[in-house]
Amino acid sequence: MKNHQITIIDIANTLNLSKSTVSRALTGHPNVKLKTRERVLELAAELDYQRNQLAISLLTNRTQTIGIMVPEFLSSFFPKVIIGAQDVLAQAGYNVVICHSNESYETEISNTKLLLASRVDGILVSHTKETRNFEHFKIFERKGIPVVFFNRIVDEMSVSKVAVDDYEGAYQAVEHLIKTGKRRIAHLAGPDSLQNSRSRLNGYRDALTNHQIPIDPSLIISYDLTLDKANIYVNHLLNLPQPPDALFAINDPTAIEALKVIKSRGLRIPEEIAIVGFSDDPISALIEPGLTTVSQPVDEIGRQAARLLLNQLAAEDERPEPELVVLPTRLIVRGSTMA
């Protein structure tokens, strides 16, 4: 029997049981006696039996596989989201296929084709910074495959979404800088193709306006999230005739790059210029000075996204109405803003 793929029939013949009894024993059906189930599981382990997932998917029209699409792995954010989602999906009996787009729209399209060909039951998505057309995701909708967006969500599709309160997080970050006495607060913003970038920019603007601080367009720079560009733009801001006395960055990698540039120029942090990031990457607490940042419940983003997807998959007939889950953020104050 070791010379071919072990099947339920092999186990049934060896134990003199029916095929249906073996199948029920392997799936934990309550109608199978405990001793019988133990015999089946023991032999299955001895013979290295693996369930034929292809055959099961043909019978159930389900592959028990979920696709997770992320734009980058440069920080700890997306790996942590995936871990949270995978914990929930594994408990529900689903396997996960992870696709990394490397912030490329073309790669993202290729990844969607791969997941469609793999017959995934649903997908969790955070799109690339280049993505402005979402037709490749709408194909899943038309095929009845549920889609849930997380972190980088979109208005163009009526599907479930998970985000944090980017606006409020940015507002609190800038208000904190104002309360420490800063007035010329710059913002390194993300691409306007990303909704979270737009929300954080709006929070920045409103915090200044509500505290009667004029908005200076020369202090706002939207960029493509690459660290070499961050380096260039931080130097540009510091070279202004009236340089900023504080910087609110779109994310922690940007803030950390800014901190490196500012220290290399001999400026004192936070006395001459303060810095706030967004995301609370683990390294933010380890650098000197520690980075003040907006913390996000990263694991919970993944967990909530997975639960929303499972709710869609559990519906027998009509899909439930799409849900929007907005999770709170928390400002963590460290040495980059408080001496």
UniProtKB/TrEMBL annotation:
Organism name: Larkinella knui
Alphabetically ordered keywords of this record: DNA-binding, Transcription, Transcription regulation
Keyword Zinc: no
Any Pfam family: LacI
Alphabetized SMART domains for the sequence: HTH_LACI
Annotated InterPro entries: HTH_LacI, LacI/GalR-like_sensor, Lambda_DNA-bd_dom_sf, Peripla_BP_I
Gene Ontology molecular functions: DNA-binding transcription factor activity; transcription cis-regulatory region binding
Protein known as: LacI family transcriptional regulator
Domain named HTH lacI-type: residues: 6-60
Keyword Magnesium: no
Superkingdom of source: Bacteria
SUPFAM superfamilies noted in UniProt: lambda repressor-like DNA-binding domains, Periplasmic binding protein-like I
